[in-house]
Please model this.
Amino acid sequence: MKILSFLNYASKEVLSHFSQDEIVNIGSFYDERLKQKFYKCELGTESYVLALFCTMLDLSEFDIGELSAESCFGEEEASEILEFLKSADLILLDSNLLYHKDKNIYYFASKLAKHFDLKLMFDYELKDVELVELDDNNGLILYECLDNDDFIVSPAFANLAKIKEFDLVEIKTKTKTLKKKVKIDNSLKGLFALSKKDNAYAFSPCVVKGVSNEN
Model:
């Protein structure tokens, strides 16, 4: 198999799955454990390199000179990569790129994969998946979606948690503890409570503790 990869440090799954394959790797530093032909780019400029490839193929319209200068990746090197892709099978992306501030990385990689009819995947997809065991929380769910600091619950949630309107309660999830005053919204159905949105997964199993009847 022929693989174009964007890896800085190969996972054990990559080393195991592709030990006998031909890998052309683009990264910011060389991982000697990975059998590869290495091309260096400036740290964090993977999107510029991919945009350079797409522009040279007329799949995008950017200034080639600017892309090359920002990424420190030459047009001659890019031409070698594009020639390699004609007979390649896979584009492999580092899972860390999922957290890159430039979300165009997957967009450009997808255009490139489609053009050459290649498979596109992140290295985390090589791992065996295990389901995470859920906590026993009686089905109570905290949904962090509000723009304010309210804590709004459904009647069913209030009934199961044994709380009332205006009670001061402590809500615990796996990652945080909140202290809020209860508001009951009769229009809500299910075992849901609503609170201020956070920069994380919005739904969390929760338990209600430390109930107070302060008004």
Remarks:
- The radius of gyration is 25 Å.
